[in-house]
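User: Sequence in, structure out. Go.
Assistant: Echoing your sequence, followed by the structure tokens.
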Amino acid sequence: MTPRRGAMAVWLLALGGALALTGCAATPAKPSTAGDTRIVVVRHAEKAALPATDPPLTGAGHARARALRDALRPLAPSAAYATVFARTRQTAAPTAAALGLQVDVYDAAPVDLARRLLASHHGDTVLVVGHSNTVPAIVSALCRCEVGPINESRYGDRFDVTVASDGRATLVHGDF
């Protein structure tokens, strides 16, 4: 190996090490790029059958709400939103309580909610809890993409919409 090649190899190793350390230190609790807004939209957790008009969460639903809290804690949401119904407020409550937040009630008009969230929470992470018939429309309004329906018997869908400062949105769909 020539001295020049040896110096280049040492430089590349040093650069690689610095980048590796930077990657570890730069793993943020909030969205990765300054100015990005992350909206985490979930359907409420498992609900009881009664009362039919406004059922609370079941034991499994409360466990799922705590699992959501644990999953979102590293993201440090700055706000939590839910509809007026007990099941959505109870799903958001553990996350809000862990972060010292109140659960704000929203009207389920998806486009208006999306505008409000993006205007009011620029650069933040926000939790939104909705229903099987509202979550797809909320996510679609946020990402400007098509989101399929959620089966009424399915709980645990998590939609992370990240909107960059230039307005481009990305969607990651998983479970919580």
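User: And one key feature?
Assistant: The chain is about 40% helix and 20% strand.
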